[in-house]
Amino acid sequence: MAATQGDASRGSQADPILLTLFANRFMSVAEAMGRTLQQTAISTNIKERLDFSCALFAPDGDLVANAPFIPIHLGSMSFAVRYQMKLHKGNIKPGDVFMTNSPLAGGSHLPDITIITPVFDPDDDNKIIFFTASRGHHADIGGILPGSMPPTSTTIFEEGASIVSFKLVKEGEFDRDGLYERMVTRPAQYEGSSGCRCFRDVESDLRAQIAANHKGIQLIHNMIREYGLPTVQEYMLHIRSNAEQSVRTFLKRIAATHSTTLNSIDYLDDGSPIRLKVDINKDTGAATFDFSGTGAEVRGNLNAPISVVHSAVIYCLRAMLDSDIPLNAGCLVPVKVIIPSNSLLAPSPTAAVCGGNVLTSQRIVDVVLKAFDACAASQGCTNNLTFGAGGKDAEGKVVAGWGYYETIAGGSGAGEGWHGTSGVHTHITNTRIGDVEILERRYPVLLHEFGLRPGSGGAGKYRGGDGVRRVLEVSMPMRVSILSERRTRAPYGLYGGHDGAMGRNTWIKCEPSHSDPSAQPTSSSDEPAAPDLQKLGKTPEELELDDIPVPDRAAREINIGGKATLWMGKGDRLVIETPGGGGWGTPEEGDEGFVDESVQAGDGRAAWEARGSLAERARAQAEF
Fold first, then answer.
1. C-alpha–C-alpha distance, residues 65 and 504, integer Å
2. pTM of the model
3. What phi and psi, each to the nearest 5 degrees, are found at residue 63?
4. What separation, in Å, do the N-terminal and C-terminal C-alpha atoms of the chain show?
5. Which residues form the signal peptide (predicted)?
6. Across-strand partners of 116?
7. Which residues contact 45 (CB under 8 A, 6 or more apart)?
8. What pLDDT score does 414 carry?
9. What is the pLDDT of residues 116-163, one digit of tens each?
10. Strands, sheet with 112-121, edge to edge from the N-terminal-most edge strand
11. At a CB cut-off of 8 Å and minimum separation 6, what does 609 contact?
């Protein structure tokens, strides 16, 4: 390898074989970090749902490479790395590990906690050569509701612990007391809010993130021993340059085949517009993405931090490329993003943001892809379900508890030449649903139904994918919340394709029953009639519970809208029907009805086979 190292380190031209080799080596570092994190974490969010990302960053904080994790994390983590670099410039030492989740410091929303570890030159403890970072969604970090994704939050203080910067590990020493202070004590100081309801779980998962970062450091040092630092860093730059040239080539082609000016607009369910104008320089392949005309900051939590907007843009650019390159900072080099101040895409420091990361981000993606005529709208939602117990009681005392969080799949949009996919996490979520066995074993719920929602995909020459129907029953009284979009505005179809079906959330509320002595009538008209003592032949003292008549009524079905928090009683059910994807092209004769998923997918695979970037990469590795 010595000769190869020498050849690579001389001159500026990249060897195509080494370029591919290093691209995959860098990606393998991120993959190994991810496996370490999954295997050592204990929460269902990270271990089962895979709601985490790991990546490798250059000394300047730019994204170098990642594995196919969560795109919304990967595009914004560079902001977090660069913020910590500037804040602690001159005070970063071997053994330091930084923790952050604040949108002010490159965070997406508060449950996504980023752990950042500097990588030092093996021969020089004063020289940072890379950064490793991991971001994981933690199911409860405090706030006004279990699960830390409150549908009704209006300020960031209601959403849990907010940490701009904290040295979780200082020169090798783990600061547990400081972590407890920031995760439990401080969030509980705000009115109506609690600290982390299950500190042990969060602490354990954060330690797993630290271990994942350390695994990345070991692999980077191994690579340096094999090739030498100059070669490794040179090919880091070549990979970034390759991504830049790929994006420039793509934008030049769009300017030649479509137009140098692209426009699109879509709306959130509350009517807030997200407007985009793309101006492309046909000669250089540079482009300006201008979101001027986007709606003002909202009082709710659909505000999206600037880092999230950049994540959505870089994801769309990478998704539209024909070439197989790692998603990295080079994709954004030819692009200038303009975001109007005081808009919902550049909110004030105290604005609530938990929904912006998971819902508004999806709408931004739909707007970008619509501008490029790439495909019809996907479900445009992540259908965020949370439930749990604990926190502050009526007297203000903090009660230990737990929180659960999941996102639910829907339909993807169709495009020219391909049908949408049914029952899939779309675009920048890329997580998966947890196993029902794990769900029912760990939490007091029963899953009655989980399947496709036939006909919810938009009709067209190419059909949109179908959403899903998920029915959960709670086994104990608890607080349940749903945070969702596309409940009043359907996912659009393109070129004559029909819109996908809107989503719907329904609460099936059990009525009071004589078998439950704690049940109370819901209104004065629900009061049970007095028992006929003469007919029963009993005195009042001899009455039994079964003697009291109860009105014979079916359970109530209540449409709770897209964003709601409920106190559900034992036996109540929540039915979540997720949106379908939009169709593409005018429906041909006989194409209005339901199409079997195995045919709809157009890939020769059965409906139950795994799809998505993780499955595709695993399949490619198995075939190698």
1. 38
2. 0.85
3. -65, 125
4. 23
5. none
6. 98, 133
7. 51, 136, 137, 138, 139, 405
8. 96
9. 999 999 999 899 999 999 999 998 899 999 889 999 999 999 999 999
10. 63-66, 52-57, 124-137, 112-121, 97-100, 166-170, 173-174
11. 615
DSSP state of 2: H
pLDDT reported for residue 529: 55
Average pLDDT (353-381) is 95
Contact 83, 473 (CB under 8 A): no
Paired tokens of 505: 């959330």
**Residue in 618, 312, 613, 580 with CA at minimum distance from that of residue 421:** 580
Secondary structure class of 563 (helix, strand, coil): strand
Determine the Cα–Cα distance for residues 246 and 249; give it in Å rounded to an integer: 5
Kindly state the tokens that stand for 381: 């939602």
Q: What secondary structure letter does DSSP report for 14?
A: P
Q: Do residues 115 and 53 touch, judged by C-beta distance below 8 A?
A: no
Q: Hey, is 587 helix, strand or coil? A: coil
Which position has the higher pLDDT, 430 or 365? Answer: 365
d(CA 231, CA 439): 47
Instruction: Quote the pLDDT of residue 8.
Output: 41
DSSP state of 588: P
Q: Phi-psi region for residue 285, left (φ > 0), alpha (ψ -120 to 50) or beta? A: left
In terms of C-beta density within 10 A (0-12 exposed, 13-18 middle, 19 or more buried), how is residue 116 classed? buried
Q: Tell me the residue length of the chain.
A: 624
The pLDDT mean for the chain works out to 87
Order the strands of the 504-509 sheet from edge to edge. 445-452, 468-474, 573-577, 504-509, 556-559
Return d(Cα 307, Cα 76) in angstroms, integer: 5
**Burial class of residue 520, CB neighbours in 10 A (0-12, 13-18, 19+):** exposed
Q: What is the 3-state secondary structure (H, E, C) of 350-384?
A: CECCHHHHHHHHHHHHHHHHHHCCCCCCCCCCCCE
pLDDT of residue 462: 95
* Residue 21 · residue 195 · CB < 8 Å: no
Q: Count other C-beta atoms under 10 Å from residue 90's C-beta.
A: 4
Q: Which residue has the tokens 């004063």?
A: 126
Q: 581 near 500, Cβ under 8 Å?
A: yes
For residue 404, the SS3 value is: strand
Q: Is the pLDDT of residue 57 over 90?
A: yes
In tens, the pLDDT along 181-223 reads 999 999 999 888 999 988 999 999 999 999 999 999 999 999 9
pLDDT of residue 533: 57
CB 77 within 8 A of CB 141: no
Distant-in-sequence, close-in-space partners of 117: CB < 8 Å, separation ≥ 6 = 96, 97, 98, 131, 132, 133, 210, 213, 214, 216, 217
Look at the alpha carbons of 330, 332, 336, 341 in this order and tell me if their dihedral is positive or negative.
Answer: negative
- 443: Cα separation from own chain's centroid: 22
Alpha-carbon distance 133 to 118, whole Å?
A: 9
The whole-number pLDDT of residue 191 equals 86
Spatial contact of 344 and 298, defined as CB atoms under 8 Å apart:
yes
Structure tokens at 424: 């899939």
Beta bridge mates, 387: 404, 480
Q: What is the dihedral of CA 385, 389, 390, 392, to 10 degrees?
A: 70
Q: String of b and e for 361-379 (b: at least 16 CB within 10 Å)?
A: bbbbbbbbbbbbbbbbbbb
Angle at 203 between CA 478 and CA 41, to 5 degrees: 85
